[in-house]
Design brief:
mainly alpha; elongated; 3 helices; single chain
């Protein structure tokens, strides 16, 4: 199930407004913990700074809008 989540996932870089799903990052992290590539979880929200993208959308408007 987790592997299909990675294979079928929507690449973050393709979102024209550069929104990042923290929930998906949490799921990826859980996958890596389960397969032993990570020993401990981190605060994913503390790693992501979406302020630049949010400001760009605020100034330029959403893509296609």
């Amino acid at each position: 199930m987790m592997l299909s989540m990675v294979a079928d996932g929507f690449p973050v870089g393709l979102d024209p407004d550069q929104r990042i799903s923290l929930a998906v990052l949490e799921e990826y992290q859980e996958f890596f913990v389960q397969i032993g590539l990570l020993r401990q979880r981190v605060d994913v929200a503390g790693l992501v700074d979406a302020s630049f993208a949010a400001r760009a959308v605020e100034v330029l408007g959403p893509y296609g809008g």
